[in-house]
Design goal:
- By secondary structure, this protein is mostly helical.
- It contains four helices and four strands, in the order H-H-H-E-E-H-E-E.
- A hairpin with a 4-residue loop joins strand 1 and strand 2.
- It is rod-shaped, with a radius of gyration of 40 Å.
């Protein structure tokens, strides 16, 4: 095989490993990010429930004030009732007292409902907090492991990049520029097998003229696919 082609194949293989390492780093960072967002979402839910508890408590306090005001009114009406000078006045005062007591009963029911709701919300908050604590512990573990793994991948990238630099130094500069241009356009997929039987490029599955196949077989030229611009090669037979 053409020595330059062999070097390009080696370069492609190492570049693919570098790409894999970077993809792994991106995947690790994305996983940690997703877990952080999950934690923040759960924290936000707790915050919403706590705000609801505050609103519920304010409503409960308002009902308590209304109940206290009603009881004060009833006390005044009872005093007036004892001082009533006629049956009509006595009857009217009794009706007002009964109405105030009905309002008291309704307020007491509402207060009990609000208290029960607050208790339910507090229980829900405690349950969610346990869930958040577990998620935060999980996130902490993920961050620690991801940090170790990312450092390992970055170290591997550095080692691979040193190998890349060594190989690139042995490749013709003009050919290397062509390789890099295709690398950027094809996102790393530069080299493609030329099927000498089917006469197609296995990178794009478009036809390759027999003449180009012969040039590759003669090892006297670097051949590019006319359709996808990938560098064509024919694997050596074992």
């Amino acid at each position: 095989m053409n020595i330059q082609l062999s070097r390009l194949l080696a370069l492609q293989e190492i570049n693919n490993k570098i790409t894999d390492c970077r993809n792994n780093i991106d995947a690790l960072n994305a996983s940690v990010k997703n877990k952080r967002e999950e934690v923040e979402l759960a924290r936000g839910k707790i915050g919403e429930i706590k705000e609801e508890i505050k609103r519920n408590k304010k409503e409960e306090d308002r009902r308590e004030l209304d109940l206290k005001s009603n009881e004060e009114d009833i006390t005044k009406l009872l005093i007036q009732l004892n001082q009533a000078k006629s049956n009509d006045e006595y009857s009217a005062l009794n009706k007002r007292i009964e109405e105030e007591r009905r309002q008291d009963s309704a307020l007491e029911d509402e207060i009990l409902e609000l208290m029960a709701r607050s208790d339910g919300l507090k229980t829900r908050t405690e349950e969610l907090q346990k869930s958040v604590d577990a998620l935060e512990a999980e996130l902490s573990g993920m961050e620690e492991k991801a940090g170790i793994d990312v450092a390992a991948f970055e170290k591997e990238i550095d080692e691979l990049q040193n190998r890349v630099n060594g190989i690139e130094a042995e490749i013709d500069p003009g050919l290397l520029d062509q390789y890099r241009r295709v690398f950027e356009r094809k996102l790393g997929d530069v080299m493609a097998v030329a099927d000498e039987v089917a006469l197609v490029c296995r990178g794009c599955n478009m036809s390759v003229p027999r003449q180009l196949i012969n040039e590759i077989l003669k090892d006297d030229a670097i051949v590019f696919c006319k359709s996808c611009n990938r560098i064509l090669y024919i694997p050596e037979k074992e």
